[in-house]
Amino acid sequence: MLKKIKLSLLLLCLPFAAFAAQFEVDNQYTVIDVEKSSTAQVTEFFSFYCGHCFKFEPVAKAIEKNLPDGVVFIKNHVNFLGGVSPQTQSNLSFAYLIAKKHGQAHNIAEQIFKSIHIQGAPLTEIKDVKKLLEINGIDSNTFDSDIASMPIISAERALQDKQNKYSALGALTGVPTFIVNDKYKININTIKSQTELDELVKFLLAL
């Protein structure tokens, strides 16, 4: 009986072990020359204006859903894409942060992506951003108050600081980019399935 139990436990471990044996530095992931974060986390650098990010949303959501307990998933909106002014891109960073404050991050993110990539409404004016949030339960007075508040202004500045830091390090050259524990960049083009991606995330979290 004991042998059967041991065999069953071994079989349960095989999928992860099989993947882990294939994960190699400078292949599936790159080590960034920074200190590892003190808390377990996965950061997605993304832009609402990025078509690839829009298509990757189901993948990002699955990563967040499948994270081990206690691991934080952070969406870091960038403002460096060409073709749209940095301020216009930052307006959507503010919108996301305000939505997050009010527990509407997932819903508002979905609506912003939908507006830009399905409805063809690019949200280049702040009044349009404010209207979208109002339609989704965050009234204009709340929006005006939040966007002028120091916590939201500081949070948006932190998004830019983090994108600039990883750009300077050469780790952030486009979006979407996923970084685990601030130190391990996932080379997403080497990954063949969601299962493999989830296992790579777990592998990197354990390093």
TrEMBL record:
- Record's PROSITE patterns? THIOREDOXIN_2 (PS51352)
Signal peptide location? 1-20
GO molecular function terms here? oxidoreductase activity
What Gene Ontology cellular-component terms does the record carry?
A: periplasmic space
- Can you give the residue ranges of the Thioredoxin domain? 10-206
- Any Pfam family matching the protein: DSBA
The principal localisation class reads: periplasm
Which cysteine pairs are covalently linked by disulfides here? Answer: C50-C53
Q: Does the keyword Endoplasmic reticulum apply?
A: no
On whether Disulfide bond is a keyword of this UniProt record, the answer is: yes
Any idea which UniProt keywords this protein has?
Disulfide bond, Periplasm, Redox-active center, Signal
Tell me the compartments it is located in.
Periplasm
- Domain of life, per UniProt, equals Bacteria
**What family is it from?**
Belongs to the thioredoxin family. DsbA subfamily.
Entry protein name: Thiol:disulfide interchange protein
Give the source species: Pseudoalteromonas aliena
